[in-house]
Amino acid sequence: MTQLSSASNVVFTSLEASKAANEYVDYIRNNDGDGMPIYIPSMDYNAKDRKGFLPVVQGELITVLGRPGNGKTGLMMWWARQRAKDLVKRGIKNRVVLYLTLEQLIEELRLFHVAAEEHISITDMAAGQLSPEQWDRVTQALNNPGMLATPLWFIGKSRRRRKVKQEITEQVVRKAMTDVELWQGDNVVQEIDSIFIDYLQRFRSHGGDWVQFYGDLVNGIKNLAEDFNTRVVLGVQAKREVDSRKVPIPMMDDGQWTSTIEQFSDGVLSVVRPSHYLKPSDKMAPMWGEGKDALYITDHQDMIISTLKRKKGPDNFQTVVRFTPEYNQLDKAELEHANPEEDDDG
Predict the structure, then answer these.
(1) Domain that includes residue 164, residue range
(2) Residue 346: which pLDDT band, with cuts at 50, 70 and 90?
(3) Distances (CA, A) of 127 to 123, 142, 320, 325
(4) Which of 200, 263, 280, 338 has the highest local Cβ count within 10 Å?
């Protein structure tokens, strides 16, 4: 890999800029734009009507905002799995999807993968309450050649490697990504297709100014997307004040201890699960909009994904999916503008 030895390496003449842009155009044309969709049919971008979530291209940072228990990790893990499986389906062998966790052990995340593929409850698995037949399916899935070949790699703490006491910092993440990315001379032979970082507030500041620390950290993570020519999906915990709102949807300025999300992010999504706030008998107030355009939720297993910002694409729209945490599954749910006053099922 060619190393930058002086500032002149970041200066491009008109000829050099055109040459680089020509190579980039060829890459985009040969890879159909190579954007990463979100893999939710009702949410993915439709070029014909110019609606939906624009695919994520290399160098972009997408932030996922959510309060604890509202599905932020579930959405990110599901998205990472779908991307890795899509790379296999398309026959792309020189890229990996990274999932960095500061919240759970690597073993737990791998079992989330198994739960989704085998439709076995991760809750029952964690409690040790599976039948012998189910445990056999778990073991078989972990050793299945298809799962082993899926390019979903993890960065984080492991029960198996608990002897290693390594604090995960921005610098450690950058070093790990450098080790994953492989070069032969000036040609990259293994790329990081995307990295999912769960989640920002688990990086710990050793100083007193947390707002400054997390602001700088978001900027640093954005730099990772650009330096490694990859896509970054960053989980960010929303402020506690969101819980007290009549409509508890996190907005762009609701990131806990950071006000730089809107500034550095190329896209911002927020997630909320109504069941986290309501009893089964409750009637839901409009979650978004007014009158005939109001969005009501009548199924308490639904998750609302709001697109708050999307650079170069549509934003300020909502999608509803059915979310089952124990299986890490997101299924398309048809959005209906049901009137709670006429709905007897609540």
Answers:
(1) 59-270
(2) very low
(3) 6, 18, 30, 15
(4) 200
Q: If DSSP codes are grouped into helix, strand and coil, which group holds residue 298? A: coil
pLDDT at residue 136, rounded to an integer: 94
Sequence-ordered alpha helix ranges (H) in the chain: 14-30, 72-89, 106-118, 122-126, 132-142, 145-149, 170-180, 210-227, 261-264
DSSP 96: E
Asked whether residue 276 is assigned to any structural domain, the reply reads no
Placement of tokens 């939710």 in the chain: 40
Mean pLDDT of the chain: 84
- The Cα–Cα gap between 76 and 194 comes to 12
Q: Is residue 109 part of a domain?
A: yes
Identify the pLDDT of residue 294. 62
Condensed to tens digits (0 to 9), the pLDDT of residues 185-204 reads 988 999 999 999 998 999 98
Structure tokens, 339: 């009137």
- Beta carbons within 8 Å of 282's beta carbon, 6+ residues apart: 346
Q: What is the pLDDT of residues 32-65, one digit of tens each?
A: 567 999 999 889 999 888 899 999 999 999 999 9
- Bridge partner residues of 317 (DSSP): 307
192 forms beta bridges with 96
pLDDT for the residue numbered 338: 30
CB-neighbour burial class of residue 291 (10 A; exposed 0-12, middle 13-18, buried 19+): exposed
Q: Is residue 150 part of a domain?
A: yes
Structural domains counted in the chain: 1
Kindly state whether residue 298 falls inside one of the protein's structural domains: no
When pLDDT is averaged across residues 243-266 and rounded to a whole number, the result is 89
CATH of the domain at 105: 3.40.50.300
